[in-house]
Amino acid sequence: MITHTNHHTGYIAIVGRPNVGKSTLLNGLIKQKISITSRKAQTTRHRINGILTDQQFQFIFVDTPGFQNQYTNQLNSTMNRVVTQSIQDVDIVLFVIEAMRFDNRDHLILKLLPANKPVILVINKIDKLADKKRLLPFLEEMSRLFTFAAIIPVSAAKKNQLPVLIDIIRSYLPENLPLFDEDTITDRNERFHAAELLREKLFRLTGEEIPYSASVVIDQFKLDGHLRRISAAIIVEKANQKAIIIGKNGENLKTIATQARKDMERLFGDKVFLEVWVKIRNGWADNATILKTLGYD
Ligand SMILES: Nc1nc2c(ncn2[C@@H]2O[C@H](COP(=O)(O)OP(=O)(O)OP(=O)(O)O)[C@@H](O)[C@H]2O)c(=O)[nH]1
């Protein structure tokens, strides 16, 4: 029987400036693709809880949007607030940086780190370092910045050192009963993940022309036996953006939809029938382009 004296559960925030690899790290730690990653900075806009549970431990990860101070619009100030809040609410903080880089934005986050809870410095992307010897002086330099509970170099993309990181986090998890069922990977629902996966492909497979204002809406999400029937809309501002997304002969949209569907099937463990429309925000739905991707042969 599980009692609170032999079980550990804790909230872990993953913070770091945009593009350091927070989403990749979260995905690697919980071994499922639930958080979106992209080459473009700042694709994470939501708090995503990824949950890892075993017999005696439950790790509840909070993936925060990249902290940044380059733009001051409403969305970004909200993001900065989310980072500050999530640091307050958790038991452990993972501060993610890139190997050999520590810029002004990293310094800004450093200032927000709490003194009263363990902060683990995760130095990511060590696979990019040709000469690993350069890491040692960098580690020393970092250790002088803050009293970190631990400093660990990893490669989130190559899954190097992630088991070691898990063991370190485990040692700081407070005694507590599990808060979620064992099967729960995330407390976000499937509809949300379907939108996130499609949004990731949209950013990955279209150029810089598509602004962050492009959004994805799930119009329909129906369970039909084991099949999930999903109808989604990509919403853009201008006709030329719509044309870019669709691509020549619909090729680009087809690739986006197919890749998104495959990721959805992997995550849900079942077949998906995905229909994607591209709409212009001022809403003439009649003009929508339809693309159907069959989820089964
Ligand atoms: N070489 C290498 N690239 C990585 C590694 N981890 C992440 N990346 C790449 O870095 C880019 C950003 O990764 P994300 O996981 O989206 O970064 P993020 O910090 O969540 O970014 P935001 O959502 O913008 O805050 C992607 O192109 C990843 O493939 C790593 O260990 N090595």
Automatic annotation (TrEMBL):
Residues 42-46 are annotated as: G2. Residues 124-127 are annotated as: G4. Signal peptide: none annotated. Residues 16-23 are annotated as: G1. Coiled coil: none annotated. Monomer. HAMAP family: GTPase_Era. An essential GTPase that binds both GDP and GTP, with rapid nucleotide exchange. Plays a role in 16S rRNA processing and 30S ribosomal subunit biogenesis and possibly also in cell cycle regulation and energy metabolism. This is GTPase Era. It comes from Nitrosomonas cryotolerans ATCC 49181.
